[in-house]
Automatic annotation (TrEMBL):
Keywords: Cobalt, Hydrolase, Metal-binding, Zinc. This is Probable succinyl-diaminopimelate desuccinylase. It comes from Rubrobacter tropicus. Its EC number is 3.5.1.18. Residues 187-301 form the Peptidase M20 dimerisation domain. Pathway: Amino-acid biosynthesis; L-lysine biosynthesis via DAP pathway; LL-2,6-diaminopimelate from (S)-tetrahydrodipicolinate (succinylase route): step 3/3. Transmembrane segments: none annotated. Pfam families: M20_dimer, Peptidase_M20.
């Protein structure tokens, strides 16, 4: 049966579809409330409708629609979801690209363009794979879902809305289609985005003691965070798939609001932390340690006044290798390549984070594309690797439906 499905996968079709998608600049720009994903989402919806899928769309915000499609097999069985987002990151300065970011040029077996690797190529591969199963006429026990949300590169509002809307209900497992060199990623780092406001009292730069300087106090907090990071690395060690945890101050500025001036002690300072966690860590305990640092600094200095807010939490994920989805994907990889699969982890978060954390869905992340290429200029994906990913997705669905044996 699988060979019959693979015969329907034209080597050029994933590339052709990916080129169409890359030519649609679906860059979400935070300053634009409407975003720019609508054209890409509309293209995907029309393609899927033309291919005979039952297609649904739902706006997360004006002009920012999620798209998903459902295909029911002829026999009862499990539901497998393939997820790939429609948005891409900014192209930066387009003139700096050798291959224009939205021209979808092909050269030397590579497809170039923003989103070619992350992750419009894999979106195309998943769509072509599921369509091949549908069009093959093979008996199929179960249901396949293609899920294409917005805002993965932002605050992941698309997948959050998909889960909160109940649309993930009944999904038994999910393949997250991201550039992982077709490795099978069974873990993901978690993320905490933390903001700290340190309050002081404005003063003349020539008479700083007449005020309270929040910048120096914010700096003490940053130094203490660096020490906490060393402690966490020592306690957790190196995860074999996702490496070490990190607590990274990415913004330190004063004042928090208004215009800075070199001869003015500001009234406040602001620190932002980008924290990446491993499955060995508890987010609640980690936030407690950060709050403990603020308390200690306040005990040492009566003028230290700061508050902490967690603005985003993305738990780490882990899927055991004996999970049916992982076993099915591994069997598919062996059948396709004749080699043992390479297991790895995702260094950042994906939409799979919330499918797992909020809906309890086992996930695996795999797909074509060099792991270090996303968000770079002259982003590209290898066309042969994309064809392999397409066949891997199709085989994974078949093995998951029928069993890995």
């Amino acid at each position: 049966m699988l060979e019959k499905v693979w015969e329907l996968i034209d080597r050029e079709e994933p590339v052709r579809l990916a080129r169409e998608l890359v030519r649609i600049p679906s860059v979400y720009r935070p300053e634009d409330p409407a975003g720019n994903e609508e054209a890409a989402a509309r293209f995907v919806a029309e393609y899927l409708e033309g291919a005979g899928f039952e297609v649904r769309t739902e706006e997360v915000a004006p002009g920012r629609p999620n798209v998903w499609a459902v295909w029911e097999g002829d026999l009862p069985g499990k539901t497998l979801l393939f997820e790939a987002h429609t948005d891409v990151v900014t192209e930066g300065v387009a003139e700096d690209w050798e291959h224009p970011p939205f021209a979808a040029e092909r050269e030397g077996g590579r497809l170039y363009g923003r989103g070619s690797c992350d992750t419009k190529g894999n979106l195309a591969a998943a769509v072509v794979a599921v369509r091949a199963i549908k069009d093959s006429g093979v008996s199929f026990p179960g249901r396949l879902v293609l899920c294409h949300p917005v805002d993965e590169e932002g605050m992941m509002a698309g997948i959050k809305a998909f889960v909160e809307g109940g649309h993930a209900s009944g999904v038994d497992a999910a393949v997250i289609c991201e550039p992982e060199e077709n490795q099978l990623c069974v873990r993901q780092k978690g993320a905490l985005r933390v903001e700290v406001t340190v309050r002081g009292r404005m003063a003349h730069g020539a008479m700083p003691l007449s005020g309270v300087n929040p910048v120096t106090r914010a700096a003490r907090f940053v130094v203490a965070v660096e020490e906490l990071e060393r402690e966490e690395i020592g306690r957790c060690g190196e995860d074999p798939f996702v490496g070490y945890p990190s607590l990274t101050p990415t913004i330190l500025m004063g004042p928090e609001f208004g215009e800075p001036q070199i001869n003015v002690v500001p009234a406040s300072a602001y620190v932002a932390l980008d924290i990446r966690t491993t499955p060995a860590q508890s987010h609640g305990e980690l936030v407690g340690k950060l709050e403990g640092i603020l308390k200690r600094l306040a005990d040492e200095d009566p003028d230290f006044d700061a508050t902490l807010e967690v603005i985003e939490e993305r738990p780490p994920t882990e899927t055991p290798k004996d999970e049916p989805l992982v076993r099915a994907t591994a069997a598919a990889y062996r059948r396709l390549t004749g080699a043992e699969p390479r297991y790895n982890g995702v260094p950042g978060a994906t939409d799979g984070t919330f499918l797992h954390a909020w809906a309890g869905i086992p996930i695996i992340t795999t797909g074509a594309g060099d792991r270090e290429i996303p968000h770079h200029k002259d982003e590209w994906v290898d066309e042969e690797e994309l064809f392999t990913a397409c066949k891997l997705y199709a085989a994974t669905a078949m093995y998951y439906a029928y069993g890995e044996d």
